[in-house]
Design a protein that fits this description.
This protein has about 120 residues and is of the alpha+beta class. It contains 3 helices and 5 strands, in the order ααβββββα. The model has no long low-confidence stretch (mean pLDDT about 85).
């Protein structure tokens, strides 16, 4: 488990702390395994957060342009849904649900199956 996951993230149901979640996610992404030399961007997307980054492998975008990496959305119970982008179909696919934010970020940062960082 990375260092970011050991610190409890803010409660996603409390509107006053949503602004603190983005920096928490940005800090956790610094511990990722793949493509550590690119700078991912965390964008607020509705109640959740979308992560995008340059496509260094050029597997998805031959020019190395920016691609969607992951979508984190809060569930009604305060847990999180982690989605990966299916670039061929142009849709988000659920990878895991009912995760703590730390668990979701650990999954995203390790990416053992290369679903997020293609």
């Amino acid at each position: 488990m990375n260092a970011a996951a050991r610190t409890a993230p803010p409660d996603p149901t409390a509107a006053q702390v949503v602004g603190f979640m983005r920096p928490f996610i940005e800090r956790a992404l610094k511990d990722r395994v793949r493509y550590r030399y690119v700078q991912p961007v965390v964008l607020q997307d509705g109640e959740g957060f979308r992560i995008e980054a340059p496509c260094c492998s050029r597997n998805v975008n031959r020019e190395g342009g920016v691609i969607d990496i992951a979508l984190l959305t809060p569930c009604p119970d305060g847990r999180w849904r982690l989605q990966a982008r299916n670039h061929a179909a142009g849709v988000w696919e659920t990878h895991a649900e009912a995760l703590s934010l730390g668990e979701a970020l650990d999954t995203l940062c390790v990416d053992a199956e290369r679903r997020f960082w293609p």
